[in-house]
User: Fold these one by one.
Assistant:
Number 1:
Amino acid sequence: MKIEVVLTPAEIALLPQRDLSQTHAVVFDVLRATSVIITALQHGAASIRPVATLEEAWATRGGRPGSLIAGERDGLKVDGFDFGNSPLEYTREAVADREIIHTTTNGTVALRAVAEARRVLVGALLNLDALAAFLRSAMPEHLLLVCAGSWRWFSLEDALAAGGLMARLPEAEPTDAGTVVGLIHERYGMEPYKCLRSSTNGRRLVNIGLGEDVAFCSRTSSSALVPEMREGVILPPLKS
Ligand code: MLT
């Protein structure tokens, strides 16, 4: 298995130009988009449609009566949306059997950027063991780990998750980016909360009163779900 790691939004912006038809992509946005997606599906959401912009979100909702619209800008719920981007909002009572249109600053953009990949999996610390089991069985020739980042920048917590997944997979010769995420995982793999709490995003969330999200998103391998996006829609997940 050849494993490639993409660490920044600038690299993600180039992915739609590549032929990813033979690639399995895993998108990580630990704080918080992919943690939200896993949690919503865990709590029975019928589907999630990640979209890149607010305009697209409103237009998609216009064509899908009964759907919920969710996500964030600057970390906060958008005016008129049903939910923000805190996984704690996505309770069973709130989301069971509902279709959710989801837009965030980086996570949903990264998912859209790899929409043409052979398979697109949703990753976070929450589902690392399940993801690894899934990939050990699928054994793709080319695996692309996409760290969504934050605004224009690299994010420590996404690199931690990518490194954690690599550590759970059979030996693969690492690229330099793979070596970096491996080192981050060696340093913080046993202390995920410490890593997330000290990251730029973690501090930002604590500063806007969303510190509980940081603790929730640190719960490594607490979910057995491996959500997959097909034709732009994430449906209830495959179990490992
Ligand atoms: C993103 O997609 O940039 C994030 O999930 C941001 C956040 O949740 O605050």
Number 2:
Amino acid sequence: MTNSWIERLEVDSLLGLKRFAVLLDPDDAPKGRDLEKWLTEISNSEASDILIGGSHLSHGNTSNLVIAAKKHTDLPIVVFPGSPDQISDKADALLLLSLVSGRNADLLIGRHVEAAPKLMAMNIETVATAYMLVGDGPLTTAAYISQTLPIPSAKPELAVATAQAAILLGMKLVYLDAGSGAGNPIPLEVIRAVRKAISVPLIVGGGINSNEEIEKAWEAGADLVVLGTVLEKSLNFSVLKPS
Ligand code: 1GP
């Protein structure tokens, strides 16, 4: 029997069972009854997972949102932390992100050293994740906050070499992110090239706004597509329906 979140994603990836996750940003997520209604709607949708976290929080609290969300959904809740203070042992898993597209040592190993003693003392599944920002549109919060340059969209070979290096370093998952609210999603050629080069599960997110874009990302090789901004603005899945 497979129990861990990453094992289930690995199995789905092998079987070609495509998934999508809703990302809740603790700064912008609804509260109280609205949160309850939204989580019920997410649970009744075809969403497979809920991600919680953000690259920059002004007032939101990841741990509190995880606790609130757990009361209203049985979907797996995975922390997508922008910093060690977003760690929560109430979630089902935590993506231990290394920003391998950048050269900011703090986000490659520094924050992990800070977080490791806390994580080791917690009973939470951590998933070593190669987090890659890709894109050349307007500056995203993720690129600004991380003070890193994304991989250029027109250089799939750079994305491939970066993902391969991460796999050789033992990472279990690759997350290609155009950045929250990005003008353009990750180019399909980049998804295809990375998919061909690696066999671990592949997450794709950033700037995905429609069912058509979800399907295209899946067809190109994404196993799990993440939707944040588009649903956060409307709290309604009908915005994803083709017009
Ligand atoms: C951001 O991949 C996620 O890290 C989701 O992006 O908010 O643009 O959907 P959006």
